[in-house]
Design a protein that fits this description.
Layout: H1 2-8, H2 12-30, H3 35-51, H4 55-64, H5 68-78, H6 84-93, H7 97-106, H8 110-119, H9 123-137, H10 150-162, H11 173-185, H12 191-198, H13 206-226, H14 235-238, H15 240-259, H16 272-288, E1 295-299, H17 300-308, H18 310-321, H19 326-347, H20 350-360, H21 366-382, H22 388-397, H23 406-413, H24 423-436, E2 441-445, H25 447-450, E3 458-462, H26 463-469, H27 471-479, H28 499-502, H29 511-523, H30 531-548, H31 556-572, H32 577-581, H33 585-591, H34 595-630, H35 643-646, H36 657-678
Helix pairs in contact: 1-2, 2-3, 3-4, 4-5, 5-6, 6-7, 7-8, 8-9, 8-10, 9-10, 11-16, 12-13, 13-15, 13-18, 15-16, 15-19, 16-18, 16-19, 16-21, 19-21, 23-24, 26-27, 29-30, 30-31, 34-36
Length: 680
Amino acid sequence: MATMCFEKANDAYREKWARAGGLVATADSVMPKNLELGQASLQKAAEIYESIGMHEKAASCYIKLHDYKRAGMMYMQNCSTSRLEDAGDCFAMTECWSEAAEAYFKAKCYTKCLCMCSKRKLFSLGLQFLEQLWEEASVDESNIGLLYSPAAYGLIVDSLDAHLRPSNKKLTHGHLGRMAIFLLHVVPWGAMLTSRLMQYLDSESEWANFFQSLDIFVHHSRYDFFGHIESQHPSGLDGRYSLLLNLKLALESTFKFTLNANWRAEPDYISPMCCVDLIECLGYFASSCFVLHGCMFSTESIFLKMVMRKNCSLYFQSCLMSTPDRELEKMSISVERFIFESARSLLTKKHMIQEWVQKTSSTSHIPVLLRLVVALYLVPLNLKVGDCYEATRFLEMHKVFEDLPLEFSQKILGALQIRSWKLGKFRRLFADALEVIGERMLVAGSPRAQATCRGLNAIVISSWDCMVNHVARTVNSLFRDESIENNFLGKIQRKGLLPHERNRGGNKIRDAEFWEKFEAFQANKQGQKDARAIVVFLRSVLSWLIQRGPPTKIDVDLLLEVRQVCNDFDKQSDDSAEKRACVTAKDLYSTWKDGGKKLKKIISVLRSEKASMEEDRRNAAAADVAVQSHTDGCSGSEPGTGAAEEDAPEARGLSTPEDVEAHKQKSKKKSKKCRRHALP
């Protein structure tokens, strides 16, 4: 009856709602007698609920159909955050363990999430979740107790048991790297975890010495800073010297193993990204020793990343609180020399790096090369180790710049045209080169040392401010105006965007224009086989997401990967228009691993986003009509003349949420004005 009434009233939305409700009632009544009819009714009801945006009701239908994965996806992608735990439960019912863990994490059911990762052997994912929790703890300490819980400790210990080499039952090289990054990221559980870790390492190995020295350093640092006792003892006693030395030796042993080609036979070898991450950490430690009375040169992303890592931040703070130490400074110079030579050696073996990346991860080798080049140049900028201009000639000779972003390479190679090779000139040139790849130079040091950096395109941090206010608080306040504090919350980072992508405020893509392009791309099946059309579409997606913020359903890493794919395509196809015309989607996917699947995922998320926006627009329109009907007595329109309908957002051509919201505000003002006139 309700369906018929709404149909006669031309209320399509409520007609479908009533029809779906009737189908559910039918299914509930006939299911015990006629299972097939009941399931068909539920399936139809679920589809109707989806079509009108009632996703929770659709999910409940799928649960009754035992289609738990579909229900979980519905809760995850289309419902409010209050249903994320239900999404996790649905995924667990259908044994989609990683999806369940992700849903529990987003729902802030952290114990459930960590237990799921441990029980189902999702150790890499679980460690990533723990790292993210430590990052959030830098801003909000409400979850600090969870990080020391049995669930967290159990996950770490179980991950050790699962990554042993068959030959000697010792930790694999890959998990050694992951554990090193993880323990640099968090404050370790102390001797209990270290002793457990030692069971899986040769007691005299370089990595065993590193983990032990890290534990010793953290023990002293926690006593100093959490006990509010200023550290005045030499670096040999507070553990900085030992930590610096042993991290260098551990990386040295890994590089020897890598360059001897032994890694190809390893089932789980350390990834190049992990190696570069540890090189950056080692360089950060070495340059931190000079920050109190001199200055350190770094990049925005490296510095922020190290501040987020509890133990790296403690090292920097320890350098600020200690007296100068000649032995530590000598060790720092030795470490910087090792970084310079290691980076040079690796950069001469581009093909090996490419093979190494393909074996250990799904990313491109270009970010590895770029980060190695940046690490190489930071050494002579910080200390008199190596020469920037000689390093540039070396990289040019080995054709490293051919694989790097074009603008970055051109800026750096411009240094060779300078007549007088001075460090200050190269420093300015390098800062400008960093900016074209969405990065920025960062200088931290004493006020006297900072005076030498005037006019430099860089972020400047005072070591005095860091010492008085603590590093994390100083950095947080410094970057707040530039929205970099989002980096502390795990959101999209400025370093992921190119300058021309960040500065498009005056050329925004309106929603209607973007969705028109989106629909055209979906309809053009032939165009989806053309790499150029795909790249044009992806660029429009990036531009639209940058101006409005990425939806939570799209991983930020995927967006950064898409940007890299687009840049690589432009670079490879710069040769000629003829060559660009011949590039197919298959060619594009040959360099973009799982590109077809990732493109489908992006399209699926955008479809969901569009449906959500349309639902918001309908709700806004309904609210606007309600406001209009309330003010009919103040307007010149007679009841029943359709004035309210003519004033509805759709009738006025308000096709975007921004237009609808503006129209709502206007209507509210009109309502208030009418009420004032109506007062006696």
